[in-house]
């Protein structure tokens, strides 16, 4: 699991299983130098994707999802924790694997098979502001923000240092706002945590993106005359048709000559 601090009070913290102390003391694993943070503020006992949070002193102010912590409580990915005035979000860390190379069917002259990397499942294409025309692949977990270490770096004053998290799921992209000042929007509707589908518009403050699946064409209405119909094929003349017509004319001529001859002979 990982702690993300949207206002930049601390760099992202990734925990290994075990105990970690958070406070202003130098011996703490997570040192927060901010008003209201005690020397030893609280501790996290991490196990897998969850942790047990307990206070070092009952007077130390901590909330989980807006509820004050008075006794040990389990925290999990998606929870919003506030230590005095410092906010952070818990996110899951998936131990991703490197993209699996895919073999191309084309072969070079030397007989070697070409290798290319697998395409990302989704990409964001910028449609306004500083990112217009740029394409950003979406990894399993992607952070968007003004800080340079964010996977999608947007150097705009309207963007929080760590603005939002994008997480790939089977149904699309789960978008989660990380407590940004100017908001995260899907199709011009402000959201805190919601699914983004291919073709939807995603906006951070005034910076807009379009979510696309590589290889999928976006449906657009295009005018234009319909394609001309293919003319029906003309049936070829029956084989020997001209020859039959010629013999018919010859037959008629023979009959006419015979009739004239018979008349001259006085047969009728």
What's the topology here?
Blueprint: E1 2-4, E2 13-14, E3 18-23, E4 30-31, E5 42-47, E6 50-55, E7 62-64, E8 67-68, E9 73-75, E10 80-83, E11 86-91, E12 102-107, E13 113-116, E14 123-126, E15 135-137, E16 141-145, E17 152-153, E18 164-168, E19 173-177, E20 184-186, E21 189-191, E22 193-196, E23 201-204, E24 207-212, H1 241-264
Parallel strand pairs: 3-4, 16-17
Antiparallel strand pairs: 1-2, 1-11, 3-5, 5-6, 6-9, 7-8, 7-10, 10-11, 12-13, 14-15, 14-24, 16-18, 18-19, 19-22, 20-21, 20-23, 23-24
H-E order: EEEEEEEEEEEEEEEEEEEEEEEEH
Strand order of the largest sheet: 2-1-11-10-7-8
Output mean pLDDT.
78
Q: What is the makeup of the main sheet? A: 6 strands, antiparallel
Report the principal-axis shape. Answer: rod-shaped
Oligomer class? single chain
Rg, alpha carbons: 38 Å
The fraction of residues assigned to DSSP E strands is 35-45%
End-to-end distance: 122 Å
Which stretches of 5+ consecutive residues score pLDDT under 50? 96-109, 111-117, 217-232, 234-240
- Give the total of beta strands: 24
